[in-house]
From TrEMBL:
<dbReference type="GO" id="GO:0000976">
    <property type="term" value="F:transcription cis-regulatory region binding"/>
</dbReference>
<feature type="domain" description="Response regulatory">
    <location>
        <begin position="7"/>
        <end position="121"/>
    </location>
</feature>
<feature type="domain" description="OmpR/PhoB-type">
    <location>
        <begin position="130"/>
        <end position="230"/>
    </location>
</feature>
<feature type="modified residue" description="4-aspartylphosphate">
    <location>
        <position position="56"/>
    </location>
</feature>
<protein>
    <submittedName>
        <fullName>Two component transcriptional regulator, winged helix family</fullName>
    </submittedName>
</protein>
<dbReference type="GO" id="GO:0032993">
    <property type="term" value="C:protein-DNA complex"/>
</dbReference>
<dbReference type="InterPro" id="IPR011006">
    <property type="entry name" value="CheY-like_superfamily"/>
</dbReference>
<dbReference type="GO" id="GO:0006355">
    <property type="term" value="P:regulation of DNA-templated transcription"/>
</dbReference>
<dbReference type="GO" id="GO:0005829">
    <property type="term" value="C:cytosol"/>
</dbReference>
<dbReference type="InterPro" id="IPR036388">
    <property type="entry name" value="WH-like_DNA-bd_sf"/>
</dbReference>
<dbReference type="Pfam" id="PF00072">
    <property type="entry name" value="Response_reg"/>
</dbReference>
<feature type="DNA-binding region" description="OmpR/PhoB-type">
    <location>
        <begin position="130"/>
        <end position="230"/>
    </location>
</feature>
<dbReference type="GO" id="GO:0000156">
    <property type="term" value="F:phosphorelay response regulator activity"/>
</dbReference>
<dbReference type="Pfam" id="PF00486">
    <property type="entry name" value="Trans_reg_C"/>
</dbReference>
<dbReference type="InterPro" id="IPR001789">
    <property type="entry name" value="Sig_transdc_resp-reg_receiver"/>
</dbReference>
<dbReference type="InterPro" id="IPR039420">
    <property type="entry name" value="WalR-like"/>
</dbReference>
<dbReference type="InterPro" id="IPR001867">
    <property type="entry name" value="OmpR/PhoB-type_DNA-bd"/>
</dbReference>
Amino acid sequence: MTHLRAKILIIEDDRKMAAALVAGMEPAGYEVATASSAEEGFFLVHTLQPNLLLLDLTLPHRSGLDILKQIRREGLDLRVLVLTSHNTVEDRVEGLSSGADDYLGKPFSFPELMARIQALLRRTLPTPDTSAIQIGDLEIDAKSKVAHRASVRLELTPREFDLLLYLAENQGRTVSREMLAKDVWQESSRFTPIDNVIDVQVARLRKKLDDPYPTKLLQTIRGVGFSLREPQP
């Protein structure tokens, strides 16, 4: 799904990491700014008014959690994705409890990061009309909640349709099980993993979506998640 040009601010004191993130995000159409300290970052939060903040928690002189708490105290309308090497359950709980919208431990895969960014921006940015989505011979009508493959209607359960629509809105991108749990199943915590439930639903969707057709659209990205895409010739 294509968003109107979004502004992303990265607060990260590792300049090589920040440069790598910028190099990956700008070609995807994002407007990206960086800050290497909490003070500079907080200044840019107010002056740039970004749509999304990528926040490292380990910063010189002032922690990223301090920035996060201040942002929430001020009531700023800003999605925050925490990126940190502090990746224990306790760290995640503290980050999410302090107001983070999502939490990704280092090292991370760039495709998963991009997919999470897309998921967060879906909640904040106006988007073009996506009531009708087409991927190859797959047609999805989001308003009527109907999908067709090669002009044949797919008999989907409500959950299967929600899953298909989410994958279609992120077409070409890799969607993790954690993202599906949060955005499709509305599970805000992963303390009770539902990976098996997700895998069963994906298998059922694949049976209806792909099994009867020679061209397979629903791909499993080993170790990461799933992607709905038209195969490259």
